[in-house]
Amino acid sequence: MAFTLEPTVKVIFNCLDESGSEGKVMLHAPSSQLASVVQTNATALAALIQAITGCSVRSYSYSYEVSDPAAAAAAAGSRIEHKGRFIWNLANGLETRAEVPGLDPAVVLSDGAIDLTNADVLAFVGAVSAGTAYSGIDGSDIGALKAAYEAFRRSTRNMLPARRLAS
Amino acid sequence: MRHSAEVLAICSRRVGWRRRMLVERLPVWTITFQDQSGTSSVMRGTFKAGFSTEDYLEAVALLVEKVAPLSGCTIVRYAVVYRLRETDPATARSTLSITPLARFLFTLTDTPDTFAEVSTPLDPSWVLTDGPLAGFGLDLANSEVTDFTDSITGGIWCDPFAIDLAAVDTAYVVEAS
What we know:
The structure holds two protein chains of two kinds. In chain A, 19% of the residues lie in helices and 37% in strands. By secondary structure, chain A is α+β, with helices and mostly antiparallel strands. Chain A has two domains: 4-67, no CATH class; 82-158, no CATH class. Chain A has a four-stranded antiparallel beta sheet, with helices on one face. In chain A, strands 6-5-8 form a three-stranded antiparallel beta sheet, covered by helices on one side. In chain A, strand 2 (8-16) and strand 3 (22-30) form a beta hairpin. Chain B folds into two domains: 9-86, no CATH class; 101-174, no CATH class. At the A-B interface, strand 2, strand 3, helix 1, strand 4 and strand 6 of A face strand 2, strand 3, helix 1, strand 4 and strand 6 of B.
C-alpha cells in the first residue's frame, strides 16, 4: 500500500431550490490548508453561492483524501456484499457499528460469528476500542465489542457480475 | 486543531427569508474498498471533536492497516470528512437535480489557456438579455456575481491539481441532462 494525500481538499456544497430539488457545487482547495482555513473560506462562500443561485445551502462538507494509485488487486472472489458487522457498546448506553466489506471467509466461524480468537480480528477490534479519536455518532466513547458476525447485503444491478450466462 | 462551531446566518430569496445556521457536526472517517468486480463500498465511522487533521488521518491510517487483513477487497482510498449542516430540518422533496446550471470557467495561474470549471444552480436573473450571448451568457459585471467570482479567485480555491485560479474567463448556462 502506497497511500498519498490528494493535492486538494474537496469541498461540496449541497443546495436546495424552491421546488425541493437538490444541486451540488464542488470546489477544491489545496490540502496544505488547515481545516479551519478551509472552513472559514467555505462558510463565507456559502453565503455568496446562495446570493447568486437563490437556493438554500443546506450543508457542506470538505474532505482530506488519501488514495493509493497503485492499489493491489482485490482477492479472487471478493464481494463487497459480504460484510463483517462489528457492534460496540458506547459509554452512553447506545451502540455503534462498523461493517467491513468483502469479509475474508477465513475469519468467519461455521455459525456465522466472526472468530474473535483470530489475531487479525483481535488487532482490529483492539485498535477501535483503544483509539482515543473514534466515537459513536454522538461523540460518545466506544467501549467493549458487543457482537461480530457476517452479514450480506442485497446486490444492486451494478454489483452483479458482467458475465451471467452459463456458457 | 479544533475549530469552534462556526455558524452562518442564511437567508434565501427563493425559499423565503428565514434564519438558518450551518452548524459543525462531528468529523467522520471513510475507507473505500473495491472488490474483484471493481465495485466499491465505503466503511465509515465518527470521530470525536478536538483533534487535528493530521491526528485524524493517522487514526484512519491505523484502521486501514488493521482492517485490510480482514477483507479480500483492496483499499483504494481513505479520508477524514468535516461536515456542516443547516439547523433547519428541510429536506429535499424531489429526486430531481437542479437544472439548468451556471458554469463559470476560470483561467489557471500557471497555464492561462487552461481552465477550471465551477458549476452552480442558475439564477435566471443573471442571464444576459441582449447582445450576442443573450439567453446563454451570464452577466459577469453584476455585483453579486462579481462578489462570487472575486471570492473564488481571491480565496484559497484551486483546480483539482492544486493550481490557483486566476480570473473568471466566461460564464454561461448549461442545460444539464
